[in-house]
What we know:
This is Nucleotidyltransferase. It comes from Streptomyces incarnatus. Residues 1-41 are annotated as: Disordered. The chain is α+β, with helices and mostly antiparallel strands. A hairpin with a 2-residue loop joins strand 6 (133-134) and strand 7 (137-138). It contains eight helices and nine strands. The chain is globular and about 55 Å long.
Amino acid sequence: MTQNGEGTAPLRRPEVAELRLAGGGPDQPVTTSAPGQPELPQDRSQAILEATKEIGALLKRAGHRFALAGSVAVYAHGGSRYLQHDADFCVLPDDAEAVAATLREAGLPVRTPPEDWLLKTTCRGQNIDIIFALAHQPVTAEMLDRAHVLPVDSVLMPVLAPTDLIHSLVSAFSEHYCDFGAVLPVARAVREKVDWDALRAACGDQPMPAAFLFLLERLNVIDPQEGQP
């Protein structure tokens, strides 16, 4: 999930990334079976989880404040394990350079894309986004304070609170990006954990978020707003 909802969005260009094993360094190529044995089917979701765990552990050891976002955060909250894009980590804007230095010290490449709200790196052949703004709003200390510490495939790390997670996705809707189908299963997965009244108060008066919330009501994913039919 990034500013354009990339954490769950299919608009991200297809990535063909070489899988990596957990046991080696960040640039060690993957072998999906023992030497001399036929290769096993590649598990892209597990590869993304392995990269997520390594980055999360690295940021924890360095003492950086962060929270996992995107599709892996949805998985941590009980959503689908089907991960096909990347892993997203939210950090404070003022901490971005320090986080980048930590990644470089660990031997990971750090790239600055044209977008001015994230950095990119690669770990175990998987793309990692280091995000310091969500839906055009800077990541804040309050947002990180609300994060839940959850196991991500056995590694504990801060994960965006469900309300913040859905808010970041819904607020990214616009005339140019409005893929309700990508966010609908996420809303279903975490609906009981989201403060929908707070979400409506934050973005419900914007046309695209309001339309999505209305869709959720009509599909009986959430209850209608109080006072509305």
